[in-house]
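Researcher: We're teaching a course module on how sequence relates to structure. For the next exercise, students receive a sequence and then see the predicted structure as tokens, so they can try to spot secondary structure elements on their own. Here is the exercise chain.
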Amino acid sequence: MDYKIPLKNGLEATNEILQINNKAKIIIVSADKAIEHITNEIGAISFIKKPFDNKRLVKNIEKAVKGEVNSYFKCI
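Model: And here is the predicted structure for the students to work with:
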């Protein structure tokens, strides 16, 4: 989930998604590192700062899909 999306920010959208499905695994992506602390508070499983290496994003997605994350973790 990108932080800057049309109509609302990614944090608002994440909150809405988790209200519908509290098991959703959401990774916040943003150039603004200052929002990293908020991502954990709203239930995202990870934060990746832009620009990022695609391999990092894929690795984080794989962890989420495999169920290797149950709570917040920093991007590796």
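Model: If you want an answer key for the exercise: The first strand starts at residue 27 and ends at 30. The chain has three helices and two strands.
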